């Protein structure tokens, strides 16, 4: 039996598990997969749009919560988010994250849009879009998910918020990550560039393409090892920055690997590749959850449970054939409204309300029902399963994950202290 069971190994689940362990709690982490970090971009989005572009995300989030009382930021304070961001930077170090949580900068996407975010890996810092900067965007012919001409032309035509534009042009190189492989994934390319000789060969191809004063944008494949980018930049002799690709995300993979290594070092019990299929409830409290492994079922028990299993994308929330929304482990009520009111037929219109569906919580991150009564006093929720936010539109996913994890952990620790 553990003090706490955390379900889910995305940013919220890993943060909650590690911080609880740092506070002396025994923790079991249950996850059916690799977690959601590899679907992200390796950046920390706190609040990018509300709906206009946000300059200071921490400052704006509480106002956003007041204007949208159903949003997670109506329960999570700016102090929670600041605490979470500081914890993550301190935990991972500046070789994983750089930036200012009080200032959104603009960074290129794989289609040449400019995306606001607060913190980025060091390998992206030189890509901050500022008036007068000069970029050369270098594509790899064998990597089919990156089109440098598209990126460069879109960047060059975009007006910056304070006026002015960046200058951008495109180039190509031919580079086989492995002999005879002409259609590698980004992760395959990154693993190849972990080899010093391979990354030197890559850098020597890029170097002649760079003109004076230019920074070099490349697809985000510069090694699984965070140190690979630095060596490539030194050889090229100019600032080099990564541009995130569609999932799986190499920068997200780096973050995930670093956090999972810390989970193992902290001696958190990690049970991977198993699906939590049901919960046992007695006297109004969750007593245990059952996982389905290979050929058998097993129950894990704890005093407290943290649900950080994500939303629709992970299967933690589902829509059945009768158009009913369900949470799949505890049978929790899903907030969102009638399905007929949650989906509209205008594909290019406004947001689909369905994607704001999720779990409603009180200010301690305990799940509540339609009448706002706590469902189970020892069950907390955080991360992508919370209702009221469309994270990819707002650019708020990591802020919600970190802030809700911090608030849930603080509430758990306060509850334990009160009982003792």
TrEMBL record:
Alphabetical UniProt keywords: Flavoprotein, FMN, Oxidoreductase
A family per Pfam: FAD_binding_2
EC id: 1.1.5.3
Gene Ontology CC: one annotated term: glycerol-3-phosphate dehydrogenase (FAD) complex
Domain FAD-dependent oxidoreductase 2 FAD-binding, first and last residues per copy: 3-399
GO terms, molecular function: glycerol-3-phosphate dehydrogenase (quinone) activity
PANTHER family associated with the record: ANAEROBIC GLYCEROL-3-PHOSPHATE DEHYDROGENASE SUBUNIT B (PTHR43400:SF11), FUMARATE REDUCTASE (PTHR43400)
Name this protein carries in UniProt: Anaerobic glycerol-3-phosphate dehydrogenase subunit B
